[in-house]
Design a protein that fits this description.
- The chain is mainly alpha-helical.
- 70% of the residues lie in helices and 0% in strands.
- The protein has one domain (16-138): AhpD-like (Up-down Bundle).
- The radius of gyration is 15 Å and the shape is globular.
Length: 144
């Protein structure tokens, strides 16, 4: 692959805004486990190898099990995720694939499992990682 532009270098103000968005995520109530699941799953869906590599390493360092990381792409078919995590993963998938909308069933399940404020934070975390994925993919960032 050819080297592409560096967003941080070409648009430092926009990159700074993205970093501030990331700092916001560090201050909200979402647990680190939930943030990691969102980042990994959205990155899998978008095919961002750079972000998958980074966030699986971060998740493992934070105590996430290899087993849960390995089966994350088929989370519906395993007993390894809690009700809250299932609601978060379903919402992550539907917000990432927004052309199909966040369904009423998924929205209701998530509100019931998480509450409105926590769901709002989940949505913001999904939006942020999707933006990072698009930067990584468009600029062909590769894992080290």
């Amino acid at each position: 692959m050819n080297a592409r532009l560096d967003i941080k270098q070409q648009e430092p103000e926009a990159y700074s805004i993205m970093l501030n968005f990331e700092k916001y995520l560090g201050k909200i109530e979402l647990t680190q486990t939930h943030k990691n699941l969102i980042k990994i799953r959205a990155s899998q869906l978008n095919g961002c190898s750079y972000c998958i590599d980074m966030h699986t390493k971060e998740a493992r360092a934070a105590g996430e099990t290899d087993q849960r990381i390995y089966v994350l792409s088929s989370w519906r078919d395993t007993p390894f995720f809690t009700e809250k995590e299932r609601a978060i993963l379903a919402a992550t998938e539907e917000v990432t694939f927004i052309q199909h909308r966040l369904s009423e069933a998924t929205y209701t399940q998530a509100v019931n499992a998480l509450g409105e404020k926590y769901l709002a934070q989940v949505m913001m975390a999904v939006i942020v990682i999707n933006a990072w994925n698009r930067i990584g993919i468009a600029t062909e960032m590769m894992p080290a």
